[in-house]
Amino acid sequence: MNIVLLGIQGSGKGTLVASLEKELEFDLISTGQLLRDEVATGSALGRHIKEVQTSGNLVELDTVLKTIQKKLKTSKSKNYVFDGFPRNLEQAKEMEKICDVDLVVCLNLTQEVALKRLLNRLTCSKCGNVFSKLRVKSNVCPICKGKLEQRYDDTPEGIAKRFEEYFRQTHPLIEFYKAKHLLIEVDANRSPEEVAEDVLRAINERNNKK
Ligand code: AMP
Question: pTM, whole model, 2 decimals?
Answer without folding.
Answer: 0.94
